[in-house]
Amino acid sequence: MAVPQGQGPGLRGPTAVFVAVFFLVPLLLVGQMSLSDWPLLAGDRGVNAPENYSDIAEGTLFWPAIRFTLLYTVIVTAVLLTLALGLALLVQESRPGAGFFRTVYFLPSALGLASASLLFWGLYSPTTGPLSRVLEKLGLVDDPVSFLGTPTSALLSTVFLIVWKFAGFYMLILLVGLQRIPHEVYEAARTDGASRGQIFRSITLPLLRPSLALCLLLCVTGSLLAFDQFFILTKGGPDNGTVTVVQLIYREAFQRMDLGTAAALSIVVLAALLLLNALQFRGLRRADES
Amino acid sequence: MGSTAGQRGHIHRLVTTAVALLATASLVTACGSGDGGSGGGGDKAATATGVDDGTKLTMWTRAATRPQSEALVEAYNASHQNKIELTVVPTDDYQAKVGAAAGSRDLPDLFASDVVFVPNYTSSGLFADITERVDALPFAEHLAQSHIKAGTFEDKKYVVPHTLDLSVLFYNKELYRKAKLDPDKPPATLRDWDRQARAVDALGGGVDGTFFGGNCGGCGVFTWWPSVWAAGDDVLNKEGTEADLASGTAKKVYDTYRGWVRDGIVAPGAREETGTTWTGVFPKGKVGVMPMPSTTLGLMPKDLDLGVAPIPGPDGGKSTFVGGDAIGISATSESADQAWNFLAWSLGDKAQVDVVAAHKDVVARTDLASNKHSQADPRLVTINELVAHGRTPYALKFGQTFNDPNGPWLTLMRNAVFGDGTSVAKDNEAVTASLAD
């Protein structure tokens, strides 16, 4: 669609204003904050650079939080994408009932993450939750289950919540990708005598790559920025075993009341994410070219 | 993927990601505060009772003390022209909410605060100076002094007590009878408590000896420290910059709790109890004896036969954590006289007796400790009398040291009780480092 000469800047205007107000200005403010001594309650007390940045690495939770966030990202991405692909393959064909199952799988995505986390927090609670009692009644366990009682069980319980919540969403993206693959390609392959496995490996997966790449990016970025689910389910515990990087930002700002260090951490996370995304894009593009 | 489109998509997505990330970052900026509010001077036109002229006032409180605040506000609105609109904020989010509002000058006219956080707010100038107003009250000297002290900064008073919340032992008399224990003899020492909890636990059938919030720093402060104080020891230095949480007495307390965990005397869920539901366990009637906030007494089921006793030390003595909320007028309020009208009324005889005491809560004035309601319920006398034996610890870095779920005190607590208890000295150093930060 061609834009008449001279109208370009006018049409770009609203976007430019939007980007300036909601992206550039906050970014500059965070940058300034990260260079200043800025207690939450007392406000800006002037530049103290680079103290906020050097404080970050000194925090005892910084490196464990990075390790944990990466571990969480790997687990969630692997489980989520595998499951989403499986679900998409299950419901891709228009068989009777496929629509019902598509809806059922997608339904949890309609819930907000905070609401879903609160729901699971209630289900997992050993004092008030029903889940442990149900397992006991069924005779599967003898003692009440402590879903959030150890760092490992807390991590797995959170992964379960996230998979339940997001599998349907990623399934939908992959489903769209699957349905974009022309039927003729499959028919040709079948005529040539290709097995189901061969079709999946040589046709479905390569042609699904753009959708998978999108899912991968969204999932990795989302997981690296994980906050709500851990804030509500574990508060970083037990024993500081589930502290994510964004939780550290929150903790600096609102527990330790140091907005300067929180802003510095935000900048570091922003830089890391930009770098990681650039690398991912480059990797994916190289794969496309090969 | 075409190269131009790919390039543009690439940049577009990078920007999208960056914008998404900035949502987090701007959360932080949005809360940046401007130049800190000044303490404000007492209004010269102020009278002891303030002004009641039909002004709409806003007020915040945290969920933990919601019933008390609601009762007071309801009674005030029913009898005054001023109308207060009360907002209850989840306890865990309260600090963040106040901090954000302080930055954007959106604080309500009145806001209550967990008394241990008050020094943060007074030292940052969030409250208006109410020294003259407080001193003009006819009963000024009888106000709970631990709260007044916490709200005094550089010799100026900024808050008055709003709700007093004391840690006391609740014990289930019915379970005591079943366990062949004397229901009129609650524990007088930590040893008694240990023996009685174990006796009740032996009943079995889903009954447990005791319970505590094992993943909740605030709960530990509130319920464990009184056992140390009861022995005459202290846990912090006067300036709140040094911890003494590895003393012999403190270790005896940890050892007792560790024994309960080891032998399964504690109801399930203690290990992961972050404080949200820790008071919901006792009212189910399946726990023998545990420390509870006094503010929950009025909320207990009518048919639960429960006794109240002071928290004892290892070999006797008694103490309590004088917690709860103090309340002040925000420095940015334009209706300070009207807001003071509520505060002055809330501390008066009528509100204290007919609202606070009637709800089985601790009165904010020592001269009203014995009133018609407490005389009818000896448990209230036990609690009211405890105020004199209790303490409110002071530390500027209290929240980040003791309440932070990722702070050093919770690590100490959990290592001491769920671990083998050998790291207490080392963990105490981390607590001191955080206090002196």
From TrEMBL, chain B:
Domain of life of the native organism: Bacteria
A family per Pfam: SBP_bac_1
InterPro entries assigned to the protein according to its UniProt record, in alphabetical order: SBP
Keywords: Signal, Transport
GO biological process: maltodextrin transmembrane transport; maltose transport
Entries under Gene3D superfamilies matching the protein: Periplasmic binding protein-like II
GO molecular function: maltose binding
Signal sequence region: 1-30
GO CC annotation: ATP-binding cassette (ABC) transporter complex, substrate-binding subunit-containing
Similarity annotation: Belongs to the bacterial solute-binding protein 1 family.
Protein name: Sugar ABC transporter substrate-binding protein
Taxonomic lineage from the root: Bacteria, Bacillati, Actinomycetota, Actinomycetes, Kitasatosporales
